[in-house]
Amino acid sequence: MKKLIRIATVASCLLLTASPALCGDAKTVKPSPDAAITMLKDGNVRFVAGTSNHPHSDSARLIQAGKENQGDHAYATVITCSDSRVPVERIFDAGIMDIFVIRVAGNVVDVDEAGSIEYGLAHVNTPVLVVLGHTQCGAVTAVTDAILGHGHALERNIPPLVDNIAPAVKRAMAQNPGAKGKEVIPYGIEENVWQGIEDLFMSSPATRALVKSRKVKVVGAIYDVSTGKINWLPQAKTAEILKKAEADPKRATEAMAGGH
Question: Which of 3.40.1050.10, 3.90.1150.10, 3.40.50.720, 3.40.50.12230 would CATH assign to domain 31-247?
Answer without folding.
Answer: 3.40.1050.10
